[in-house]
Design brief:
Among the domains are: about 5-175, no CATH class; about 180-285, no CATH class. About 50% of the residues lie in helices and about 10% in strands. The chain contains 18 helices and nine strands. It has helices spanning about 15-20, 40-50, 65-75, 75-90, 100-110, 140-150, 165-170, 180-185, 190-200, 215-220, 220-235, 245-250, 265-285, 300-315, 325-355, 360-365, 375, 385-405, and strands spanning about 5-15, 25, 60-65, 95, 115-120, 125-135, 150-155, 320, 410.
Length: about 425
């Protein structure tokens, strides 16, 4: 029985891409592939975009195991044989597109085969300029940050081998739809609402953040962030992941259905989300810390959204009297929590090494994984559990700061005078 050919986009860390799509696991079929043609300038630009978080072009691979079954069902005996021979040699995928990105841009750089000149970002998303440097010579925090950066890998499943050259040609005949663009084409009322919000009230806000440059917005990065924001703020969806599969589910809920028939699109939830995002927008418009020529860290967007939700839900208990100071307060607290968590992790690791010297580094890391610490939770906002941990830590400090008068941008109304005792 034939199955439909499908494409599964995945956000994969650079480290995992290098492990899972090496030349030992991924075949390159030269009969329909182009040569690796990138020059030094293009390689540098791609490495920089990966570190910045703006590498929107994906690496396309075909799944061999499902391809064997598809070739048999399609009657492609020659293709089945070619797939099977590759599978027996240990290959699990075939490269369809993205050789230059994968081999020249990622593997050669991380394997110290090329030098890099340009800007890279560390774990705090702080930029630094480098000139003709190999990966092994980078400071450790830049190495970790680069290998933790995500790139898009699209896995094609259920494709007969004979279809692969045609798919390759189509991939390179124009710019393929990304996952957000595919979602946006679904006939669902939420897509119109999200797009109208992005292109209307919040149009000027998105470009202020890293990861939302001109090209990214042209490929609907603003719509992706708006979808994620609404799902986080929506009482019906706040405990869900906001990965691509979950956003697909969210859009598909309303396919060919009116808005009022979908609980997850509730009008009150939409109004609440807009009100909270208005706080973020006002903050971005009025902050004086980051000049217009530079961008606000993506991590700060989620911190602002979290604190704005807290302020909104206090139902008038607190008032923001200075949005510029509000930005400074939120950024300062969030940054301090990141720094403190890294210091705490280092202290915990050292203490464990001293108390249990028989443990090797891998065992120590397994005992004290990065996910236990705020700095890492900030980078995993798509996971509800980590999102909740970050929210709890951040709001705890914010609420205590407000009560102590140390969160100076927010003021509480004066207490109501009690009537004199009779």
């Amino acid at each position: 029985m034939r199955k439909k050919i499908t494409c599964e986009p995945l956000n994969v860390s650079v480290g995992d891409v290098i492990d899972d799509y090496s030349e030992k696991k991924m075949a390159v079929v030269k009969s329909f592939q182009r040569r690796q043609v990138w020059d030094k300038k293009t390689i540098n630009q791609y490495i920089e975009s990966v570190s910045e978080g703006t590498a929107v072009s994906g690496i396309i691979v075909a799944d061999i195991e499902s391809g064997i079954v598809a070739s048999e069902a399609f009657g492609d005996e020659s293709g089945k044989k070619q797939y099977s021979e590759l599978y027996d040699k240990g290959y699990r995928t075939i490269n369809e597109d993205g050789q230059n990105r994968l081999f020249l841009g990622l593997m050669d750089f991380c394997n110290n085969e090329v030098t890099f000149s340009g800007t890279l970002y560390d774990l705090n998303y702080s930029p630094r300029q480098f000139t003709n440097i190999k990966f092994e010579k980078l400071p450790e925090q830049f190495q970790h940050a680069f290998k933790d950066s995500n790139v898009v890998v699209v896995r094609i499943k259920n494709s007969p081998f004979c279809k692969l050259p045609g798919i390759f040609r189509k991939l390179n005949s124009g710019m393929p739809l990304n996952r957000t663009e595919m979602r946006q084409s679904i006939q669902t009322p939420i897509s119109d609402w999200i797009r109208a919000s992005c292109e209307g009230t919040f149009k000027e806000m998105w470009p202020r953040f890293t990861g939302c440059g001109t090209n990214a917005i042209l490929r609907m990065r603003d719509i992706e962030w708006m979808t994620q924001s609404f799902m986080i703020l929506n009482q019906h969806t706040k405990d869900r992941f906001f990965r691509d599969d979950d956003m697909d589910w969210f859009f598909n809920l309303g396919e060919n259905r009116p808005m009022q028939m979908v609980n997850e699109y509730d009008k009150a939830q939409r109004q609440r989300a807009i009100s909270i995002l208005e706080i973020v927008r006002s903050t971005v418009e009025m902050e004086q810390t980051v000049p217009g020529s530079k961008r606000i860290p993506q991590r700060t967007f989620w911190a602002l959204l979290t604190v704005a939700e807290y302020i909104y839900d206090c139902a008038g208990k607190y008032t923001i009297h200075s949005y510029d100071q509000f930005y400074k307060d939120v950024y300062s607290i969030d940054s301090q929590l990141v720094t403190n968590s890294k210091i705490q992790q280092a202290n915990d690791l050292n203490a464990l090494r001293i108390s249990e010297p028989q443990l090797d580094d891998d065992e120590i890391r397994n005992r004290l994984p990065d996910r236990n610490y705020y700095w890492n939770q900030c980078r995993r906002m798509e996971v509800p559990g980590f999102r909740a941990l970050r929210q709890s830590a951040l709001i705890d400090v914010v609420s205590r700061g407000i009560k102590a008068g140390q969160f100076s941008s927010v003021v509480a109304p004066p207490p109501v005078a009690q009537s004199a005792a009779k």
